[in-house]
Fold this protein.
Amino acid sequence: MIELTLAEIAGLVDGTLHDADPATVVTGSVEYDSRAVGPGGLFLALPGERVDGHDYAATAYARGAVAVLGTRPVDGPRIEVADGIAAITALAAAVARRLEATVIGVTGSSGKTSTKDLLAQLLPAAGPTVAPAGSMNNELGHPYTVLRADAETRFLVLEMGARGVGHIRHLAEIAPPQLGVVLNVGSAHLGEFGSREAIALAKGELVEALPTDGIAVLNADDQLVAAMASRTRARVVSFGEADVADVRATGVALDDLGRPRFTLQVGAESAAVALRLVGAHHVSNALAAAAVGLAVGLDLEAVAAGLSGAVAASRWRMETTERADGVLIINDAYNANPESMRAALKTLATVARARRATGGRSFAVLGPMAELGPTAPEEHDALGRLAVRLDISQVIAVGDAARPIQHGAALEGSWNGESLWVPDVEGAITLLRELLEPGDVVLVKASRAASLERVALAIAEDSQAAKHSPADNSIEGGSTE
């Protein structure tokens, strides 16, 4: 954060200063986790469902905090406010307007975090860059990320999520963006929005917030995103595989691990890109990042090199681990929606085909997708059917809400035993340890609440698959009846 005195901060957040020297300067970061506080920092004490940050004020002071920003008295220098989230929001908004950084907002139904991670690795070639770790895209994570920026920051990359109309508009008011990236409009949070058109309305708030000299980076392959060009005053730069896209990918192909290679084409210029990320869906994310990189002054060769060198920076997103016995685990368990599920299944099928010479089979371990509303059973059923059409060797549905996945697979393929259901994570781990053989490929994917990363982590730790007999009463097989 840029350096501010406690008196200045108190004024910005409409707070009252107690037991502190108003001239004390906050030279460190603003943190809501007392373990992350360092010398000169400010500790944001937030009450939570399980813990209350005020109870950790002493720890924050011991680690060097010069004051606590909270809603009730603590024993030490403090700024008392009525609402902690409102206070950090006001502070971030004030800081953002004092920064000289170019603010880049990224939104979309899927791919936000991966694209943000690509930008975080690409943009430092053009100047000091701040981007959030993980998915810090809500009413706390967004202002928290803004406060990571300081006077030296040239680019501030902000991931912007929404669970309703008006949410992105609110985030854009905190730190007004100069560049806005809209990746796609899918089915994530469909149960909350009601329709893809409503999702598009919310996502488009980002381009509406751009100034006349800003740049809207829009996906030419998604009609609902491309249509947002009419909602912005900014210059539009399109990306995609469509011929009309300004920043295009041609000749897309996947290697044996499902990593995309393509030619990055801008007008008459082109450069080769070989991503280290797994999944064809990352081509679109890479093109969006490329469009931003070119917009801020990087040349095409530097953009291609930066994308080719970028690695997966956020955990459990198409994260691959190969065991000593050749079993390959693709851990994509951080989140899920119908679009990302389909993309992950297609990647699994591609990788399995490439490894077929070694005898490896493909396993799709799938949990429920959250927040789909009344379409949930249909969407889950469709995933099971898709797995059959992609020739996935084994579908394992995990949890009650994922039953339609197993049902759809069984009906589509008339399989007997190749589509199974288990009640929980432990059941999935036990079953995989029974079934896996050297050379197999396993995809693990579900919405975050399902905690299916535990499956991927457990089987990845097995240097050699141990044989265990699954409990008969915990597994239900496919049926043709």
